[in-house]
Amino acid sequence: MLKFDILTLFPEAFNECLNLLPIKRALEKGLIEINFTNIRDFAIDKRGTVDDKTYGGGVGMLIRPEPIFEAVDSILKTTPSNITTKNKKIVLLSPRGEKFTQKKAREYEKLDHIIFICGRYEGIDARVEKHLADDVISIGDFVLSGGELPTMVIMEAVTRLIPGVLEKEDAVIFESFSKDLEEKGKSIEYPQYTRPEEYRGLKVPETLLSGNHKEIEKWRANNI
Ligand code: SAM
């Protein structure tokens, strides 16, 4: 079972994602567990302060290190002893990070525990990246307002790889960026068609209707 812990200022942002496949099915089958920790619960004062101005000047506010370090400590205190540093990762979401890929998703699927740290505002004090995070991950070269959507993206990509989550498990073996395609030196799946054979004058390639499996394989290999 893969346990996800999510540190966020907005746990409610995840409501819809929990009701969508594959996350919903994985939760129902007990293949994953998702816990939320509100960073605000580790605020530095009774007013709920978690952020502050940046040293050296700059626009906007940064999340201070204390709420993040303390929230992670509190999660680790309750982590079962069989989860070691080897099968656990603390993942900080940041546009500065390593680009998330299907290869990374396969690596994460093998873990027992992933702690996601979602930034907000101008981001998080750099000590979190330097001294707490195992991985710093970006979902692309653009800037979002928080780490919640990137966490949902990663969680979904990882969860659908867990055996037993998808009804048709072969779906993850033969798809874009799969290991199978990678080994063939390819990365993108071939184009696929369904009924009707013709729509608005647009026809399904004849080879795919031929029933000739050899030719179909050849067509697919040529159209990746
Ligand atoms: N000041 C930061 C910069 O220029 O790199 C941007 C901070 S962004 C407004 C706030 C938070 O959103 C980040 O701390 C991070 O957690 C998340 N975030 C934004 N874009 C992201 C991306 N492409 N990948 C992963 N996380 C992202």
Broad structural category: alpha/beta
CATH class descriptor of the largest domain: Alpha Beta
Sum up the overall morphology in one term.
elongated
CATH architecture of the largest domain: 3-Layer(aba) Sandwich
Distance between the termini: 35 Å
Q: Largest sheet at a glance? A: 5 strands, parallel
CATH superfamily of the largest domain: SPOUT methyltransferase, trefoil knot domain
Write down the Rg: 22 Å
Q: H/E element string?
A: EHHEEEHEHEHEHHHEEHH
Question: Which features does this protein show?
Answer:
224 residues; alpha/beta; Alpha/beta knot; Trp Operon Repressor, Chain A; 2 domains; five-stranded parallel sheet; 10 helices; binds S-adenosylmethionine
List the topology elements.
Blueprint: E1 2-8, H1 15-18, H2 23-28, E2 32-38, E3 51-53, E4 61-63, H3 65-77, E5 88-99, H4 102-109, E6 113-117, H5 126-131, E7 135-138, H6 148-159, H7 170-173, H8 179-183, E8 198-199, E9 202-203, H9 206-209, H10 213-222
Parallel strand pairs: 1-2, 1-6, 5-6, 5-7
Antiparallel strand pairs: 3-4, 8-9
Helix pairs in contact: 4-6
S-adenosylmethionine is lined by residues 93-96, 118-120, 122-124, 138-140, 142-147, 150.
